[in-house]
Fold this sequence. Notes:
By secondary structure, this protein is an alpha+beta fold. The protein is built from 14 helices and 10 strands. Strands 5-7-8-10-9 form a 5-stranded mixed barrel. It has a two-stranded antiparallel sheet with strand order 1-4. The protein has a two-stranded antiparallel sheet with strand order 2-3. Strand 6 and strand 7 form a beta hairpin. It is elongated, with a radius of gyration of 34 Å. The relative contact order is 0.07. The mean pLDDT is about 80.
Amino acid sequence: AISIKLTGNPIPQFGLGGQVLETVDAARPFLLEKLNAINQDFGFASYTGTFVSSQWSKLNVFCVALALMAGTAGLPHVIIRFYTVKTVRAARWSAFWALLFIAALYVTAPAVAAFARYYMVDDVAGLNGRQASELPSWYLSWKKSGLICWFDLNGDGKVQLTANTSSEPLVVPPDQSYDGRQKVILPNEVFKIDQVPTEARNHMIGDTEGWIRDNGGPAARAHLLELGGVHQPDRDIIVLATPEMAELYGWIIALVAAGFILWTVLRLMSLRRHHPVSGREQMGFEKAEALDRFHDSEGEYRGHVRLSGERWNAVSATPIHAGEVLQVLAVEGLTVRVRAVPQGDNGDD
Length: 349
């Protein structure tokens, strides 16, 4: 859903490498280029700078991701499937689906992280540059937790979520800017205060100027600026608030409902294919073992078989030898009608 909102592509892995929509940026840059520009506009490192600065090579990242996937696939909750299914074929399919979903998780996570970062920092979809009356609903929901809070410390009425850890504006000269233009990065005003006691936190959030006035004025303001220089919003907020950031509730409800309906339909279909589990009907799907050589009697061959742990009288249209595996065709009183299982037949007809 986030990928559709930003790039128009429903597949997040492709959306991550695609161009943003005109509604997002009229120039339609690639999403990662746009994210790099946003990060650097507010003093953060380039989002793809890990590869650019050679801190981590792409091969290293690929190997780490492969190790994570293989390690997850080797966990007991995957391997144990070999002991809980009826056949080798079912075990293989179980492992296949497990690996498929694990792979989907690991290739989707980078895209979700990039989209969430965009929604956090962007000056249109996120917080930067907004006034108090324009703050998004997801922020208003989560600020009470103390994981992300904005304090208008410079009194301009606009949010500054930046990497500037000082109490003064930071000037980036043109020769150090990614686009060759001078930039001014204001001190950070968005950070976490979850360690502050609840009562004091509510006072700080609800009446910042009053809290500053009651706690020493300039000294309290300097303390908040210091907190903004030390802390950023809690990293968990990106995960916790992403559904609200991108307004995903409708999508989540629809996907959960569709998944439940699909599971119900498949479950009902599988129940229709199940054999009876008891009684004479079930015997029609059982195998028996000939206990002796069947003898000819009035045009049929009669003998005894072991069926479900019990000895039964049996009749067959063809000769039967002791030890042969037989398929039960019908139950006639205390006698079962059987046939020899042809070689290569599993007897489940």
